[in-house]
Design a protein that fits this description.
1 helix, rod-shaped, mainly alpha, 55 residues
């Protein structure tokens, strides 16, 4: 017997499987953002953009 959600009528297994799936996607996104941050050159005070009056 498969338990179904009250509102949508879809199996609850699909609903519960979204939690670990979203965790995996967050880890992949963290890895991507980390790799992009490591590839960028380090910014110094003279190369920071958007800050006026840095001496």
């Amino acid at each position: 017997m498969i338990q179904r959600s009250a509102a949508l009528g879809i199996p609850m297994g699909y609903v519960y499987s979204v939690i670990p799936l979203s965790g995996c996607l967050m880890i992949l996104n963290l890895f991507d953002v980390t790799m992009k941050a490591l590839k960028q050159p380090e910014q110094t005070d003279s190369t920071k953009k958007g800050i006026e009056g840095v001496e």
